[in-house]
């Protein structure tokens, strides 16, 4: 059990027709909750640290990464570490030494040719360090405060033929596809384009990744996994659980000052969310 690689977990999920859940973590409580939820379901899991989370921690990758590695090594289920939405070359260079087995390089905001060139260079650097690398084509939206794109806006969806060429020319190990989800959704109302997913799955021979999954209803997630999604990214759902638990506790006890009291409830709420999401995804058992 314990620390493993993202590539191994995704490969295993693909062979069983399931998806590995990848949860974005910001605090140690996030890390503990994700592992506890995975252990309760006897399921492998990926801990994701985004570039934005690193910025929140004063630009320092190692404190949270070291904590996550230690927690993963002690886990009763396989746990991998993934560096998410990386734009900084400096951060990309730090990934392997910090304990990450994979990165998501984010150049999707750029025009196609520039995205391809930047991603190809990132793939060369990542593979030289033994890292599994994911990229994005199309714009999932909702990142860094930007609103999601309209469903019919140019570039809002991943084109299967363009994706085939992008994967072949860049050498990425997995591709995040834009099929109707959006980052940072606080309501579960996203409707996925399953016909497009079917065409993408037929066109590509690399694992497909769904970002912005917190806003996708259970039945849509189940259908996405059945349609070829192999890695599912979840972040906001944990933050909703954490914030809700803290808000409720402090509303009832405005005199409280010990963070252990409300962070315990917050961690428990996140653990329950992780377990529910893993059940929905039909994650493979460890």
UniProtKB/TrEMBL annotation:
<protein>
    <submittedName>
        <fullName>Class II fructose-bisphosphate aldolase family protein</fullName>
    </submittedName>
</protein>
<dbReference type="InterPro" id="IPR050246">
    <property type="entry name" value="Class_II_FBP_aldolase"/>
</dbReference>
<dbReference type="Pfam" id="PF01116">
    <property type="entry name" value="F_bP_aldolase"/>
</dbReference>
<dbReference type="InterPro" id="IPR000771">
    <property type="entry name" value="FBA_II"/>
</dbReference>
<dbReference type="InterPro" id="IPR013785">
    <property type="entry name" value="Aldolase_TIM"/>
</dbReference>
């Amino acid at each position: 059990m314990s620390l493993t690689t993202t590539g191994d977990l995704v490969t295993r999920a693909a062979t069983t027709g399931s998806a590995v859940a990848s949860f974005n973590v910001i605090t140690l409580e996030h890390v503990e909750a994700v592992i506890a939820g995975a252990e309760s379901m006897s399921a492998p899991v990926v801990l994701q640290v985004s570039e934005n989370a690193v910025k929140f921690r004063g630009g320092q990758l190692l404190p949270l990464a070291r904590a996550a590695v230690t927690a993963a090594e002690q886990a009763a289920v396989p746990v991998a570490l993934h560096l998410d939405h990386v734009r900084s070359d400096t951060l990309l260079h730090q990934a392997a030494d910090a304990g990450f087995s994979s990165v998501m390089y984010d150049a999707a905001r750029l025009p196609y040719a520039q995205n391809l060139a930047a991603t190809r260079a990132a793939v060369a650097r990542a593979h030289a360090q033994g890292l599994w690398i994911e990229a994005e084509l199309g714009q999932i939206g909702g990142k860094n405060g930007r609103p999601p794109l309209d469903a019919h806006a140019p570039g809002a969806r991943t084109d299967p033929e363009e994706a085939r060429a992008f994967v072949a020319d860049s050498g990425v190990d997995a591709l995040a596809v834009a099929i109707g989800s959006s980052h940072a959704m606080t309501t579960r109302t996203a409707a996925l384009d399953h016909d497009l997913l079917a065409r993408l799955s037929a066109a590509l021979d690399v694992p497909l990744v769904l970002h912005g999954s917190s806003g996708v209803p259970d039945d849509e997630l189940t259908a996405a996994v059945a349609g070829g999604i192999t890695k599912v990214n979840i972040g906001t759902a944990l933050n909703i659980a954490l914030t809700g638990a803290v808000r409720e506790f402090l509303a009832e006890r405005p005199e409280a000052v010990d963070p252990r009291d409300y962070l315990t409830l917050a961690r428990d709420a996140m653990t329950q969310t992780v377990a529910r999401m893993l059940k929905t995804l039909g994650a493979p058992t460890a």
